[in-house]
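In this section we walk through a basic example: taking a raw amino acid sequence and producing a predicted 3D structure, encoded as discrete structure tokens. The instruction is simple. Fold the sequence below.
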Amino acid sequence: MNEKSPLAPDSFPDMPPLAGVRLATGEAAIKYRGRTDLMVAEMSPNTTAAGVYTQSLTASAPVEWCRKALEGGHAEVLIVNS
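The resulting token sequence is shown next.
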């Protein structure tokens, strides 16, 4: 693990389990090596979800994919990278 960021809090509170959500993190070496840089949240089926997107007419392929994936207003997985 690399040095602790000066912006990191001194400690983290104990978090209770969230009903209907499972969280995992991992090292995908997207930006840094030796750090967790990927988070996956698995949610219960039919979880309500929404997205906020750019208004640009030249939105990237990932933005267009997300718009289409959330058309129904539900999601079961959220993936966040660094």
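Looking at the output, two observations stand out. Residues 21-81 form one domain. The CA atoms of residues 37 and 82 lie 5 Å apart. In the next section we compare this with other chains.
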